[in-house]
Amino acid sequence: MSNITCNPCNKNSEIIVICKPKEGKYYSATYWTRCTGDFPNEIHYTDYTKPIEYAGLYLRHKQIGYGDSADHLAIFLKDGKEHEIEYDYDCKRAFYEVEPDNN
């Protein structure tokens, strides 16, 4: 799978993103801007207006705390180090699968 990028020349350009990454796959992180369907069959989309960050290899989910006050983090491996991407309060953090960045 090649890197998926939004085309800034086409303001209607969107890509499908997911909210729950799968272990062992590489992702870039962004935020979804539009949602169709009803839970649990929602489809999320993002467009070129949202920042996109290469996240790396998804390793696991981490929860700190409990209930409504819990923080949820996605743990990735990038540049040989683990780093955390925090899910936002509005649950709009999203990911899309990319090729590994070998730079």
Q: What do these coordinates show?
A:
It is a single chain. With 103 residues, the protein is mostly beta strands. The chain has one domain. It is built from no helices and eight strands. The two termini are 17 Å apart.
User: For the residues shown, what is the average pLDDT?
Assistant: 87
Indicate how many domains the architecture comprises: 1
Strand content: over 45%
What's the number of helices? 0
As a percent range, the share of helical residues equals: under 10%
SS-based class: mainly beta
**Strands side by side in the biggest sheet:** 7-6-5-2-8
Order of helices and strands: EEEEEEEE
Main sheet specs: 5 strands, antiparallel
Radius of gyration over C-alpha positions, nearest whole angstrom: 14 Å
Key terms for this structure?
103 residues; mainly beta; 5-stranded antiparallel beta sheet; 3-stranded antiparallel beta sheet; 8 strands; 0% helix; disordered N terminus
Condensed summary:
By secondary structure, the chain is mainly beta. 0% of the residues lie in helices and 48% in strands. The strands form two sheets. It has a five-stranded antiparallel β-sheet, with no helix packed on it. A three-stranded antiparallel β-sheet has the order 1-4-3, with no helix packed on it.
List the helices and strands and how they pair.
Blueprint: E1 14-17, E2 26-31, E3 34-36, E4 43-47, E5 53-64, E6 71-78, E7 81-86, E8 93-97
